[in-house]
UniProtKB/TrEMBL annotation:
Residues 66-113 are annotated as: Disordered. This is histidine kinase. Residues 219-272 form the HAMP domain. GO terms for molecular function: ATP binding; phosphorelay sensor kinase activity.
């Protein structure tokens, strides 16, 4: 799942805010819908209470009186008023008139609602109504024939929608001292689509406003940070102070960029001082070595003269390694697209021309953007170590996904496992001597590692072992990113 998450600060903050807003809106929608449901429930319960509060005897007396008036011809105006709606069925507000019955409202399949019964009982008892029995059930409007007849006779679309889209409450009350039930019905309307639409619209507006403003604010913060990241990578590559970015964004970010610019200037100054110092050391040491090389020619003892020449050459090569290691961080040659197989082949040919048993394995053509002079130097160091300690070397060029691998293998004694990491440090060797013929100065692997890191890669060394665990030599690999 992590692969689908944004990696940038801007994306992660926006995702967190969007998720938090979505959760908050979901909670708000649930609470709002629940409040609406409670309000619809309360309206239905009050409608039942109003209908049941009417005295059945008084209601019957009014009906008898009304019929008498109609027979006497005095109810013409009332008849005209009743013709405006279905006869005897409706009440103002679109409710069914309660009716008297010999039995309660419970039918097969109905389930009583104890909570609603307790609430309705409390409402009626507040009005001083004596209750012998009270029943409340919830029913589907399509399963109630009285509701169906009522809607067929009234016929209004709004009224039909109000009754049919939700549920109905059917309540029955038998008062103390009476054998008849008064049965009333009230609708519980369904959730209005407009309510859900308003919640969705509100959520969209909040997303557009809040996420939009937050995006603008974060862009103002992250744009300078992105520029600072690019500048840091560029400075790590070139060590030059050209192209420093101007402080921008909030005050904290401006202070960070200004401090980074000062740090760059300080590092660049130290690097310049180091180069000047190394140049002076190189000049001051190589000049006396050249003079000594001339003077030893006057030594008559050939053996002594050879030893002295070898010592001078050893010092000269050690000094060259030290200066090269110091210059790795500030290369002067530009990176270029290079065929690594061809580069490895050229290094192998150098050793073959000197009669050294170094071979190049066949492999695919691999190209990368590198500094050829430096990478050739690193590969030479690995091959030289293999030839020096094992007597031979095998070189191969491989591609492992986005990484090019320059591999050097030998069949020598290897390195003790507990000393592998130490061998990459300056002046550390498996052989305690400093003789160039047996081990040199101990800078070869250090320089190779520095060159690999200069290219954004790494140097790996490990012992080769057979299936039974016996040592089979050393494996050294230069890993260079292809892009």
């Amino acid at each position: 799942m992590r692969r689908f998450l944004p990696k940038s600060l801007l994306g992660q903050v926006l995702l967190a805010v969007a998720a938090a807003l979505l959760i908050a809106q979901a909670i708000s929608a649930v609470l709002l819908l629940r409040a609406q449901e409670q309000r619809r429930e309360a309206v239905a319960m009050n409608a039942l209470a109003i209908q049941m509060a009417e005295d059945p005897d008084e209601r019957m007396a009014r009906r008898i009186a009304r019929r008498g008036q109609e027979r006497a011809g005095t109810g013409a105006g009332l008849r005209g008023e009743r013709r405006a709606g279905p006869r005897g069925e409706g009440t103002p507000g679109g409710l069914l008139r309660p009716r008297l019955a010999e039995q309660g409202p419970i039918r097969s399949g109905d389930v009583r609602s104890p909570g609603r019964e307790a609430e309705l009982r409390e409402l009626l008892e507040r009005q001083g109504i004596p209750i012998a029995e009270l029943v409340v059930v919830e029913r589907d409007p399509m399963a109630d024939r009285r509701v169906q007849r009522f809607l067929q006779r009234r016929g209004g679309a709004a009224l039909r929608q109000r009754w049919l889209r939700g549920k109905i409450l059917v309540g029955g009350i038998r008062r103390a001292g009476s054998d008849q039930w008064l049965i009333a019905r009230a609708p519980i309307p369904a959730v209005e689509p407009r309510a859900l639409g308003s919640i969705i619209a509100q959520t969209l507006i909040l997303y557009l406003v809040l996420v939009g403003l937050l995006w603008a604010l974060l862009r103002r913060l992250t744009r300078p940070l992105a520029a600072l990241t690019r500048r840091t990578a560029e400075f790590a590559e070139t060590r030059g102070i050209e192209g420093q970015i101007e402080p921008s964004g909030p005050s904290d970010t401006r202070q960070l960029i200004a401090a980074h610019n000062r740090m760059e200037a300080r590092i660049a100054g130290l690097m310049d001082e180091k180069d000047v110092m190394l140049g002076a050391i190189g000049h001051d040491l190589k000049t006396p070595l050249a003079a000594l090389r001339v003077r030893i020619e006057s030594v008559t003892d050939d053996a002594q003269r050879g030893k002295m020449a070898a010592s001078i050459a050893d010092l000269d090569r050690t000094l060259d390694d030290i200066l090269s290691l110091a210059r790795v961080g500030r290369p002067t040659d530009a990176a270029e697209r290079t065929d690594l197989s061809a580069l490895a082949g050229a290094v192998v040919e150098e050793y073959e021309d000197r009669g050294k048993p170094v071979t190049l394995a066949d492999g695919a053509r691999v190209t990368a953007t590198i500094r050829p002079t430096w990478l050739r130097r690193a590969l030479r160091n690995l091959v030289s170590n293999a030839v020096r300690y094992a007597g031979s070397a095998r070189v191969s060029v491989l591609q492992d996904g986005p990484v090019a691998v320059l591999r050097v293998e030998d069949d020598g004694p290897g390195i003790p496992d507990d000393q592998l990491a130490d061998m990459l440090e300056p002046f550390r060797r498996g052989d305690a001597s400093r003789n160039r013929g047996t081990g040199g100065s101990g800078l070869g692997l250090t320089l190779a590692r520095a060159i690999a890191q200069q290219h954004g890669g790494q140097l790996l060394i490990q012992n080769r072992r057979a299936a039974d665990g016996t040592p089979q030599g050393l494996l050294a690999e230069l890993h260079i990113p292809l892009d």
